[in-house]
Amino acid sequence: MGIADLDIVRRQIQQAKRGDLIFVCLGLAALAVAISTFIALFGNMLNDGLARLGPEFFMNYGSRHADKAGILAAWVGTLCVMLVTAAVAVPLGIASGIYLEEYARKNLLTDLIEINISNLAGVPSIVYGLLGLGVFVYAFGFGKSILTAGLTLALLILPIIIVATREALRSVPGMIREGAFALGSTRWQTVAHHVMPAAMPGVLTGVILGLSRAIGETAPLIVIGTLTFITFLPPAPITPDFPFVSFAWVNSQFTVMPIQIYDWTSRPQAAFQANASTAGLVLVLMTLLMNGLAIWLRARLRKRLKW
Amino acid sequence: MSQAPVHREPMRTMLKTRNTRRVQERFIEYGLLACALVAILTTAGIVFILLKETIAFFGKDGVSLWDFLTDTQWTPLFQDPQFGIIVLLSGTFTSSLVALAVAIPLGTIIAIFLSEFASEKAREWAKPILELLSGIPTIVFGYFALLFVTPLLRSVFPGLPGFNLLSAGIVMGVMIVPYVASISEDAMRAVPMSLREGSYAMGATRLQTALKVVVPAAFSGIAAAYILGISRAVGETMIVAVAAGTQPNLTLNPFDQAATITTFIAQVSKGDVPYGSVGYLSIFAAGLALFLLTLVFNLLGFWLRKRYREVY
């Protein structure tokens, strides 16, 4: 091989290495685009919405006057809907996860359930709204109530919780179960006393991610007919008379944060759009906080668990 | 040596507790199974309600399946309504195309970068940030598209209308980037190290290894990421409903405004249509079209995703 050939080879190597460098720049640029979008979105909302943020924004109902309008009905509504959603989706999701991971035998029914779950995770959220409208609002006669919204969103986030529960259970090593079985535990005792406690942080991560998804969902709630303008709160859950607890609030009409934002965004006046950005800020902070908590929990779990 | 007190249970009680426990265990298992069946019930509920109302829709006067598939007008609330789903499909198609033009290059580059180039530490930083980005409610993205991206685009293209598919599509694309990136990255990380080592041993650079060894090996997973991304874009509602306008419009031009299938459903339900009317039934017909469309993409995506999991 002559010197000239070596030079050619060297040049080729140089070129190939330059390719590496160019791609690293490209990768960093792509990440920068994604992250700067995030910053632009957040900065834009801070810029437009921070001025309106204050205690009265949380304590006022919607109003025809933009500067008097607030999100009282919206955040209370979101809270109530989330209570129903969590009460339905969390036990159902965890129980399904436990069944599929710890009990189910490999058969047609199990396969069918699994296919259904992975398909449901991909169904557009607005289709869940149609399910809620057709089944909960009209067929079951729940009306356009907190109950309907909570159930609809519960079905929507069920796949998220099931998948997270299964992953958490799968990461618990088999020897834990074998140890429990060897001491004479039944299957349920093994699951309830040994496997579930070990899987709890992972399950919790899934629950938080699911609920944070539900908080931000707008489309299904539009379809079930959530009102956009409300000047009352659902009846209080605690009553002065016996039995002191009332579930009348689940039948109440309501509005939620994303719907309020949608309503304000689609108005032409800039003052209402500023309100939308303030409410958006609150909503984004809420979901970021929840997601951040979930990501942190998961990271901590990964570090702590060394089986 | 003192004898420890021995607790002797009569055989009968022991057998009895064992039997009750067995019954109890059975109950628990069936209870858990019942919970798992909710997934099947949900799918069944969706299919049933969509089919039922769609059949009722085609039973109405002046509505036929043929017109639904071939008509070029979508005017459901007019005196003489016309239902050509193609009109809504064109809006969905165009906005999804714009979204994919953004999401596929960005998502793929980020995935290759994170999986093949970035250090462990950089990955640990970048992934949670991307995850946070994907956790932002879509209505907030819609707000961002209408009031930030559209004005920005209008300073570049002065003739752009206030509602347009372009800005909705771009923002939708950015929203899907983390989703595409994370599934593709998973697929690339599943490629065994020995393939990379073989490639490096032959003198290939990182980029050559990434593009000629890892990406082809992870191809079905990356394809799954794209297809699931498409399904996301097709089913997205709030961004297009806020930023792309609500006017049904048969167009493939992203600079136009147009309603998508999802926009139409949201728009009609917001108007509080009476139960059983043609308008009410039409959103279920549109919903069925949407459901079938995403179902095809989802099944294809899951099948592809399962394939790459099985190879290694």
Task: Walk me through the structure.
The complex is a heterodimer of chains A (307) and B (312). The N and C termini of chain A lie far apart (56 Å). Chain A has a domain at 75-256: MetI-like (MetI-like fold, Orthogonal Bundle). Chain A is mainly alpha-helical and 307 residues long. The mean pLDDT of chain A is 85. The longest helix of chain A is centred in the first third of the chain and has 47 residues, at 3-49. Chain A is 73% helix and 0% strand. Chain A has helices at residues 3-49, 55-59, 72-103, 108-120, 125-139, 146-170, 174-182, 187-216, 219-223, 257-265, 270-304. Chain B has 312 residues and is mainly α. Chain B has 2 domains: 11-58; 69-311, Orthogonal Bundle (MetI-like fold). Chain B contains 12 helices and no strands. In chain B, helix 3 (85-117) crosses helix 6 and helix 11 crosses helix 12 (278-311). The N and C termini of chain B lie far apart (61 Å). The interface between A and B is large, with 89 and 88 residues.
Brief summary:
The complex is a heterodimer of chains A (307) and B (312). Chain A has helices spanning 3-49, 55-59, 72-103, 108-120, 125-139, 146-170, 174-182, 187-216, 219-223, 257-265, 270-304. Chain A is an all-alpha fold and 307 residues long.
Label the structural class of chain A: mainly alpha
CATH class of the domain at 75-256 in chain A equals Mainly Alpha
Please give the share of residues in helix of chain B: over 70%
Radius of gyration of chain B: 27 Å
Overall outline of chain A = flat
Q: What is the name of the CATH superfamily of the domain at 75-256 in chain A? A: MetI-like
H-E order of chain A = HHHHHHHHHHH
Number of helices of chain A: 11
What is the CATH T-level topology of the largest domain in chain B?
Answer: MetI-like fold
Uncertain segments of chain B of ≥5 residues (pLDDT<50)?
none
